[in-house]
Amino acid sequence: MLIHILLARVYTPEDFGVFALYTSATGVIIVLAGARYEMATMLPRHDVEARVIQTLAMRIILSSAGITTLVAITCYPVLASLPSIGPWQGLAFLGAGVTVALSATLAARSFWLTRTERYGVLAGNRVLQSASSALGQLLCGLSGIGGALGLMCGQAAGQLLALLRLRSHTPELRQDPSVMSDGRPVPSVREMAIRYRRMPLLNGPNALVDALRINGINILIAQVAVSQLGQFDQAWRLLQVPVALITGAVAQVFFRTLTTIEPGHMRPLVMRLVRRAGVAAVIPFILIFILSPALFPLLLGHQWTEAGYFARALTPWLAMTVMTSPISQVFIVTERQQWLLAFAIVYCVVPLAILYLSPYDLLTTVSVMSMAMALLLGGMILLAWHVSGLYDRQGSEDR
Prior knowledge:
The protein is mainly α. It is about 80% helix and about 0% strand.
């Protein structure tokens, strides 16, 4: 976050706006790059089966990255001709395949670290990736590789550094699975793909809808102006640093706990997590709401005044995100992904419809959207409460 204060003075709102479009384009691909098989790493009883799943996910990720690179090369002339992007900024999009490969691989490997309960390595890797990416972007900007290209190159450098560190901590993933089998037969990649086919079939659509929501918001804001998207993205990016770090870490640990919890204990665990997250979020987000309009231009420079007001507008939504982000795992563990998909569709349609149909200015529209999303997340808490109760009751009846 400290480095980001300097980034805001090196790059312009237009630079961040084009980079937000780049991350939107790659973001949709990243969440599906491994066909969601990486999440199945948590599910097998034996590590050797989870190791085969990792191999399966990596093969799909590398194929997705290769296809993305070919598409990016094909689309470059069109992007370079757009006035809001141009030839230089358009070069960033040629790195889309690299971004997909690095981001998806880091996500896949994090599930292995969670399965083996190496939370210290996982946390250290998150911090290293975030800090080194920001530092890389700063160095690119200062050395003359500016615009979205500098932001992309810096991000890729940080991801690569984090991946190399992670590789050194997971030598077992480079072993032959038969070495880890302890005499058990090693399933083939094809067998594991068939056994956990529900991940791409049921969880895949959930992930796609979420990606369309997140990245669709950026694309619709860009229709107003790329610089406005840069202001919005700056607010979202800075507030997401603590939010994503906390919710991501809690979700990983919570997922591991849920996969081993006995029926009868899930609902109390879910509600306890929501209460604690709510208490933790209240004071920080009240301060963000009050201080952000003055704090953003003070720290980032006068050109980021609008970002402070966008940060205030986003406060209700992000506060509820802290409370609800981990509990989405409940639907996966209880095998009720279809419920999560139904919610995800509504959660996607509502913000895009508000942005597209609103007659108000962009800031007012974002405020309305934020309140609507906060209310929807309140509904998700009720849904998770119901689903966890069904799981507890069903488990009691089975016993």
